[in-house]
User: Fold these one by one.
Assistant:
Number 1:
Amino acid sequence: MVLLNAAVAILFTTLITFSAAAASFVADDAYPSPHIASMTSCDLDDLSPIRREEYDEGRIIDITHRYRSDMPSWESDDGLGQFLWLPGSMKNGSLANNSEMKLPAHTGTHVDAPGHVYDHYFDAGFDVDTLDLHVLNGPALLVDVPRDKNITAEVMKSLNIPRGVKRVLFRTLNTDRRLMWQKPFDTSYVGFMKDGAQWLKDNTDIKLVGTDYLSVAAFDDLIPAHLVFLESREIILVEGLKLEDVKAGIYNVHCLPLRLLGAEGSPIRCILIK
Ligand SMILES: [Zn+2]
């Protein structure tokens, strides 16, 4: 989740060294289209990048959402909107293309640090750079939860997740409804209720909690459930995962946030390896 006053804008530039990368962006004034008129159709075929969800014949599965201008953004009807600009363009005489981006730190597939809902943790510096990479990388369970309710204590109990399981990705109705593919923010998404978060904390060894919309907590228990999860600073929340077409079961998960000093959230790349 993201609260307006907690939103941190990320602003940095990336060097796009290969001009073909620009071919995939929607052309507009800020992002001029490449000169394709002089190319033959054969050239264009060779220059069409392949975008994949899986690698190595399905062994590596990308569970990160692609950042798109029409992806949902917290409490916005209009989606994320433009997040990438090209102030240095080769078509305008620059020696290289240099993009600049700006977006809320809690956009798309992202991680929450303890400073997100505890201001004294924020002040003390518990940012995304302090998160434990051991928790974010290792054996993980992908489970389906009942589709007709939020994740309550009762639901958590019914999942029978064994002690010793440290990382769990919870697939919910949000995936079936393809909510991460809908531009308007939808408050009817499902997630953890406070009692579900408390049950997980008290009765399991789970330290990585992943879900499939912009908040692990249901909208009605937004702050209370976050407070339960983040109080100990041992549990890491990964939100907005892309869990379509992945079989439930055991994988190795690998999630890597950016080292954004002072940020209580960060875009994160998450993959599963069979
Ligand atoms: Zn968040």
Note: Residues 110-273 form a domain with the Glucose Oxidase; domain 1 fold (CATH 3.50.30.50).
Number 2:
Amino acid sequence: MPIYEYRCSSCGVQQDVMQKMSDAPLTVCPECGKETFSKQLTAAGFQLKGSGYYATDFKDKPKAEPACAPCAAAGSCPAANGGS
Ligand SMILES: [Zn+2]
């Protein structure tokens, strides 16, 4: 089920709301009760909450990139050799 990001233009509260695609969009802000709650046009709907950081962080980086390129090039990286 997709998660939509909503924002209230009155009090500025943001909330991720899990909804079916067929559900009517919310309009009433849960914080201030005004009908200024609206769905934001973002790609956040397809990120799982809590994993958004990784999804965006890895999007434009190759996964095989070492943590520290200079060390890896030299063949002696403390972080890569059993670092916790
Ligand atoms: Zn509000």
Note: The mean pLDDT is 75.
